[in-house]
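Exercise 7b. Backbone tokens:
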């Protein structure tokens, strides 16, 4: 039962704070081997990607409908400094850049930003999952080198 609670705590932690707490706790606190770290943290990251991508789509749809009902939506696109900066970031880094940064920031925030700019949920989830795999192996490698030496 204690082992299950450890695994479950790592899983839940990876859903929200993947890089900051999830993977390091699996490696340092619980001293899991690579296969167990990979399986548990990837399951948490993938679950977060799926849940927050679909939740973000629902939230964005609700906001759009609310703004339509209140008459807040502009017919013409108004370009402000903020809009221009967001568009520059999107064009410069794309979905791959957003996916790369998502585990560093937070899974919910990254999924929301990715869903806001890219409506193809399948593509968003695939990119975010590849990013999760990259960060699992990178962090495990660094922590393994630090702890073994």
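Sequence design result:
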């Amino acid at each position: 039962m204690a082992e299950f609670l450890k695994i479950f705590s790592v899983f839940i932690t990876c859903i929200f704070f993947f890089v900051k707490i999830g993977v390091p706790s699996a490696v340092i606190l619980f001293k899991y081997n690579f296969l167990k770290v990979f399986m548990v943290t990837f399951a948490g990251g993938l679950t977060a990607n799926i849940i927050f991508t679909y939740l973000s789509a629902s939230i964005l749809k609700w906001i759009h409908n609310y703004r339509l009902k209140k008459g807040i939506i502009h017919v013409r696109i108004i370009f402000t400094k903020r809009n221009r900066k967001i568009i520059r970031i999107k064009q410069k880094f794309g979905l791959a850049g957003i996916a790369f940064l998502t585990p560093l920031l937070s899974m919910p925030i990254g999924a929301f930003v990715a869903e806001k700019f890219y409506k193809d949920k399948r593509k968003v989830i695939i990119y975010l999952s590849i990013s999760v795999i990259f960060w699992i192996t990178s962090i495990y490698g660094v922590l393994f080198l630090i702890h073994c030496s």
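Instructor comment: Residues 2-148 form one domain. The helical segments are 2-16, 18-29, 34-70, 81-105, 107-117, 121-148.
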